[in-house]
Amino acid sequence: MSKVQELEKLHKKWFKKCQCALKETATRPVPGYGNPEAQIVFIGEAPGKQEDIQGRPFIGAAGKFLDEMLGTIKMKREYIYITNIVKYRPPNNRDPLPKEKEDCIDWLYDELNLIKPKLIIFLGRHSMSNFFPDQKISEAHGKLLIKKFKNIKTENFLPLYHPAAALYNGGMRKTLIADFKKIPKILEKIKNKNPQ
Ligand code: URA
Q1: Amino acid 195: pLDDT
Q2: Which residues in the chain show pLDDT less than 70?
Q3: What span, in angstroms and rounded, lies between the C-alpha atoms of 162 and 160?
Q4: Closest ligand 1 atom to Cα of 30
Q5: For residue 58, how far is its CA from the centre of ligand 1 (angstroms)?
């Protein structure tokens, strides 16, 4: 079975298995999407309105901004994989509750263990705090964090501000664009340390 087929099978399994209460109010699940051979996986928070309608992550305003930033480092979406902590849209885009995150989290770990990216990029504090609850996004953004976890193979993490938060905040927007430009060098450094 190819990795694309394995990923499809994984999502199909979780469409049935996931017990998240947001299933009741969301239109459809929004599984991660992209290249299963990706070296970089981006993790956002939860689907918004457009994502809920179309079933793909980051296709609304925040997604367009993300594409713009990927363009500045000449990285196409086809090269990466994007997913969310929570796979169903919370009503009115409220923050997902701890139980809703918990009920979706093994789906995320399954995705990460299939793809085994060299670098995981957190988009926003909700995504980061699942892995690094003691870090503050205002201090950790743009800095490579290295840590071994029991349930995933990846050891390199880069927290960034969430594109939706940065869209309408000039200072944060500049910082996010500057942090984005660090990605190619960070990835090179990781690959040089762990060749193959
Ligand atoms: N914001 C997110 O965190 N995820 C999406 O998929 C869209 C917007």
Answers
A1: 75
A2: 196
A3: 6
A4: 6
A5: 5
Strand partners, 40: 119
Ligand 1 centre to CA of 193 (Å) is 31
Cα dihedral 135, 137, 143, 145 in deg (nearest 10): 30
Q: Beta strand pairing status for 119-123 and 40-44? A: parallel
**Cα gap 153→41, rounded to integer Å:** 13
Name the CATH architecture for the domain at 3-193: 3-Layer(aba) Sandwich (3.40)
pLDDT for the residue 194 = 81
Q: Give residue limits of the domains in the chain.
A: 3-193
pLDDT of residue 196: 67
Q: Which atom number of ligand 1 is nearest to the Cα of residue 51?
A: 6
Q: Which ligand 1 atom sits nearest the alpha carbon of residue 45?
A: 3
What is the per-residue pLDDT for 37? Answer: 97
**Ligand 1, CB within 6 Å, residue ranges:** 44-48, 51, 57-58, 60, 62, 84, 164
pLDDT score of 47: 98
- At residue 156, the pLDDT reads 98
